[in-house]
Amino acid sequence: MVMVRNRLYSEKDYKGQWIDAPDECCPCRPCWHLYHFPWWDSSGKMHSHFNCVTRHNSGCPFPKLRPLHIFYLSKRFKKRKKGDVFRCLRCGKEVRLGEEECDWIAVPHRQRKKIIEYLRQKGIRA
């Protein structure tokens, strides 16, 4: 288990919270759906707990899914070749193209809000 978060959102934002995940690629998985599961101790104090709602409700489909990484469409990315390494804007993982099993999309923006807006226009969940 590792702690991961969706980097398209700030840490203060609901979807930018750290969660327990079976793998560092979890935020890039199509099933990933952060949810707030608070709990209260005996004194009545609330404690926040963020988790993947899919995994919480029905178990993790992790081995069956491919991550969907998001890359910045830079000049270097346009000239990419097999084996080049790029960092995912959503999960922060360094991905070696052509050697790792994954799907990806290149976006023309680096700012979080513009990336989220771009993905929504394309019908992709951020």
Features:
alpha+beta; 10 strands; 17% helix
Write a concise synopsis of the structure shown:
The chain has 126 residues and is an alpha+beta fold.
How are the elements arranged and paired?
Elements: E1 2-4, E2 19-21, E3 34-36, E4 39-40, E5 46-47, E6 50-52, H1 53-58, E7 68-72, H2 75-78, E8 85-87, E9 94-96, E10 103-107, H3 112-122
Parallel strand pairs: 7-10
Antiparallel strand pairs: 1-2, 3-6, 4-5, 8-9
Write structural notes for this entry.
This protein is an alpha+beta fold and 126 residues long. The protein is 17% helix and 25% strand. A two-stranded antiparallel sheet has the order 1-2. The protein starts with a strand and ends with a helix. The relative contact order is 0.19. The mean pLDDT is 86.
Strand content: 25-35%
Shape estimate? globular
Topology as a string of helices (H) and strands (E)? EEEEEEHEHEEEH
Number of helical regions:
3
Number of strands: 10
